[in-house]
Design a protein that fits this description.
Chain lengths: 121, 415
């Protein structure tokens, strides 16, 4: 088992503030956020753009990438289930993978020392 | 040399018509200013919708005003309340206002149409991101067919407020206050955006394109050089004078907004500086021809400072979700500017030893117009709310009006 994991969460954009607040409260501070478009099982619908048909199947989502100690992955998954789940199609997905190395550029620290964590509230 | 008085009537007629025609075109471009500002200060998922609402304000407003509103505003007067002719083909009818008009009637109609459209388009910014498109078209219709023209009749069409001594040269009350009150009532009745007020606190929802918003503000300023000087409806010394008072008010307003935001929030805020300049422009409309240069500086400063405070108070204290701050900008500054003219008008104002009758008339006018607008827009929004509904569904609001109401995105990923 690798000691550092990457958790990618793709979810509904309107939940970003709630998600960030919940992560912060759990002591997880570092993240990278991107605006993305994506699809899963949804078929999309036909719209029209100046007379031509266009299949709108990619919907705007927000992607958050978190690099955390592997023991915190379950904590994040629990938070996601609590604040991001509506039960309807379009809620998004979580992807977990291993991370080989993390380096903080400013002081060249490596590994767990380089992660942005704060459990002392 | 007084070149103005040396003009023959024929030449004056042509100069007046030419200038007001150009002024009409400048005011028309304010539609683009409003659209850019609103879209820039709202989220990207609603960009298409905001632009279409602003476009439609003109498409509908201009035609409805031609067929109905113009007659109500400038038709032959009935007891100082409303015009009773000039409908469907005002240019072909024998209206009293055409007698002795010193510019081409078509240009007069064109100019008034632009003003009407400006009033209607103020509302879209206030209620952006959650107001139903089809209901909004009806709001636009009623504003331009009835609500704006009635107020316009009272003040510019020979109605009771004009008789009372109330004056509003370029429309701080007629245009800006009317639009702002309609927006305020609409915002209250449609409710705040989802996620705007959480745990009793106001959540910031930043605009997606501040440069576009700033460009919009500057386009509005440009249009104001048609809005104020054009309201003289002639090319003469008053016209030239108003270009300077307009500029002074805008600059002092912008500086006031800039420094107020700098002091209050520790950093100079470009959007508040822009809002300050626009506040000065809104405020100076009433007295642009009657106050001194110093007076326009004072009006600009007061409205510029006030708009910064008003924005936060309306949002944080009263929890009215006004997406672009139009109620504070157009309503707050409009009312302030109208009343300040009561103090600062050189020929009629209180501070120049003219007594208080003009000031009192200004105050009465503001109260009457605000009351009329509150009542009529409340009825309008209530009827719409109970029939068609005025708010989009939660899913539509979250996904964005561009995708849900128009089937497209403002910034799609390239294919």
């Amino acid at each position: 088992m690798n000691e550092i994991s990457k958790v990618v969460v793709v979810f509904r954009p309107e939940r970003l503030n709630i998600f960030k607040a919940a992560l912060k409260e759990a002591g997880i501070l570092g993240m990278t956020v991107t605006a993305v478009e994506g699809c899963g099982l949804q078929g999309g619908r036909i719209e029209h753009y100046r007379g031509s048909e266009i299949l709108v199947d990619l919907l705007p989502k927000t992607k958050v990438e978190l690099i955390v100690p592997s023991e915190d992955v379950q904590k994040i998954i629990d938070i996601v289930k609590k604040v991001l789940k509506t039960g309807k199609m379009g809620d998004g997905k979580i992807f977990v993978s291993d991370v080989k190395q993390v380096i903080r550029i400013s002081n060249e620290s490596e590994g767990l020392d380089a992660l942005d964590l704060n459990y002392n509230k | 040399m007084d070149y103005v008085s040396m003009l023959t009537p024929e030449n004056a007629y042509m100069f007046n018509s030419l200038w007001v025609m150009v002024a009409s075109i400048l005011v028309f471009f304010m539609q683009a200013g409003f659209a850019s500002m609103e879209a820039g200060f709202a989220r990207s998922k609603n960009g298409c919708n905001i632009w279409l609402k602003n476009l439609c304000d003109f498409l509908i407003g201009a035609m409805v005003y031609y067929f109905i509103g113009f007659g109500i505003m400038y038709g032959n007067d009935f007891h100082g309340i409303i015009g009773i002719n000039g409908f469907f083909n005002p240019l072909d009818q024998n209206l009293a206002i055409w007698d002795g008009m010193m510019l081409d009637p078509k240009i007069f109609l064109l100019y008034q149409t632009m003003f009407c459209a400006t009033t209607a388009t103020i509302i879209s910014g206030v209620v952006a991101e959650r107001f139903k498109f089809n209901s909004y078209l009806i709001v636009s219709c009623v504003m331009t067919a009835f609500i704006y023209p009635v107020v316009g009749h009272w003040i510019w069409g020979g109605g009771w407020l004009a008789t009372l001594g109330f004056s509003d040269f370029a429309g701080s009350t007629v245009v800006h206050t009317v639009g702002a009150i309609a927006g305020l009532v609409g915002a209250i009745m449609v409710g705040p955006r989802i996620g705007k007020y959480v745990n009793g606190k106001s959540v910031a929802i930043p605009g997606h394109n501040i440069p576009m918003g700033m460009l919009g503000a500057m386009i509005l300023w440009l249009g104001w050089y048609g809005f104020n000087p054009g309201s003289e409806l002639a090319l003469d010394n008053v016209t030239f004078y108003t270009t300077i008072t307009t500029t002074i008010a805008a600059c002092f307003g912008g500086l006031a907004g800039l420094f107020t935001s700098w002091i209050r929030y520790k950093k100079p805020d470009p959007t508040l500086a822009a809002n300050g300049a626009l506040a000065g422009l809104v405020g100076i409309c009433t007295g642009v021809a009657s106050v001194s240069y110093m007076g326009s500086a004072i009006i600009g400063t007061i409205t510029g400072v006030a708009v910064v405070f008003s924005l936060t108070i309306l949002d944080q204290k009263f929890h009215v979700d006004d997406v672009v701050g139009a109620v504070s900008l157009h309503g707050g500054s409009g009312i302030l500017g109208t009343i300040l003219a009561g103090f600062l008008s050189v020929d009629e104002g209180l501070l120049y030893g003219n007594g208080a009758s003009y000031l009192i008339a200004q105050i009465i006018g503001v109260l009457a117009v605000v009351a009329f607008c509150v009542v009529t827009t409340f009825i309008l929004f209530s009827v719409l709310k109970k029939t068609m509904g005025i708010r989009v569904s939660e899913e539509e609001e979250l996904k964005g009006l561009d995708l849900e109401e128009h089937g497209m995105e403002a910034y799609p990923i390239d294919v």
